[in-house]
Design a protein that fits this description.
Blueprint (H helix, E strand, L loop, with lengths): L1 E8 L7 H4 L7 H17 L3 E5 L10 E2 L5 E6 L4 E9 L2 H13 L4 E2 L10 H10 L7 E5 L6 H17 L3 E7 L17 H14 L11 H7 L4 H17 L6 E10 L6 E9 L7
Parallel strand pairs: 1-8, 2-7, 2-8, 3-6
Antiparallel strand pairs: 1-10, 4-5, 9-10
Helix pairs in contact: 3-5, 5-8, 6-7
């Protein structure tokens, strides 16, 4: 079956009510977008969710893919230890993905896990997903310091792996946008911050994924972005899917659900539906 949908989702911990304690209402548009995205994801009934997180174990020259049969996590770091979750990993998918990455010459695998616990870049999206769908296994992937082109290639390997199994696969690219939107934000203001958010949201709502590779490292660094590499991995998978199904005229239909940044950090939500020839877009 392969990849049927994908989601660009932010991960502000305060969106969880036990953490936000009312502050989350200041990002009501993001909350609504999250619930809408989670309901849509549940309608796809995925067997496997591939979740890419900037706060997973990260190396300069290696893509870390979580090993083992599963993991647990909670929000103790954010003073809400009572909010916890447990996931089971799709070990079959992980094994095949590592094989395809090796064949592609990409340094990726399950070695070097420093912390098995689920990170908040994983748990915030799953906090919403689990309200509507729990019958899935997870593949958890981290970023690297390597070029964007190699992140894009890893996405191509994800698509190839998804096509190798008779499974319904959904991708979540977890990531906030600029952290430099306001002077009183966590990292202050840089003009590149709003410029990045405007540019990235235009690219992502149009599903113009090749444009992600045109963002310079310097521009991204000045903007204080978080999720660009997550989005690029997802982009590689969706573009590879379109190429794989070229004869069937598969399309990826992008839709923006929300964008806001009241705390000085940009939060954007976009959804991507894989539409085969003959299907009607909704």
């Amino acid at each position: 079956m392969g990849i049927t949908a994908a989601y660009m989702l932010p991960h502000p911990p305060l969106i969880v009510p036990q953490i936000g304690r009312g502050e989350e209402q200041k990002i009501a548009s993001t909350i609504k977008g999250y619930h809408d995205a989670a309901k849509e994801l549940a309608a796809h009934a995925p067997d496997t969710i591939v979740l890419i997180s900037p706060h997973q174990v990260m190396y300069a020259d290696y893509f870390h893919i979580s090993p083992g049969s599963g993991a647990k996590g909670d929000f103790s770091q954010f003073r809400a230890p009572q909010v916890r979750m447990e996931v089971s990993y799709d070990t079959e998918f992980v094994s095949r993905l590592c094989e395809y990455a090796k064949q592609a010459g990409l340094p990726a695998g399950t070695q070097g896990e420093r912390d098995k616990r689920l990170d908040h870049g994983t748990m915030v999206p799953l906090y919403f997903v689990n309200q509507y769908w729990k019958d899935y296994k997870l593949v958890r992937i981290g970023l690297s310091g390597m070029p964007l082109s190699m992140h894009y290639q890893l996405g191509q390997c994800i698509q190839k792996t998804a096509e190798a199994f008779d499974k319904n696969v959904v991708i979540i690219a977890s990531g906030d946008l600029s952290h430099r939107l306001k002077a009183d934000g966590p990292y202050g203001y840089q003009k590149e911050g709003p410029a990045y958010d405007k540019r990235i949201m235009d690219v992502m709502r149009r599903a113009a994924f090749s444009k992600l590779l045109e963002f310079s490292d310097g521009f991204c660094e000045k903007a204080g972005e978080c999720g660009h590499r997550s989005f690029t991995i997802m982009a590689g998978a969706l573009d590879a899917l379109k190429a794989f199904h070229l004869s069937d005229q598969a399309q990826v239909i992008g839709r923006q659900l929300s964008y806001e940044g009241p705390f000085g950090v940009g939060y954007g939500i976009c959804t991507y539906k894989v539409q085969q020839n003959g299907e009607r877009s909704q």
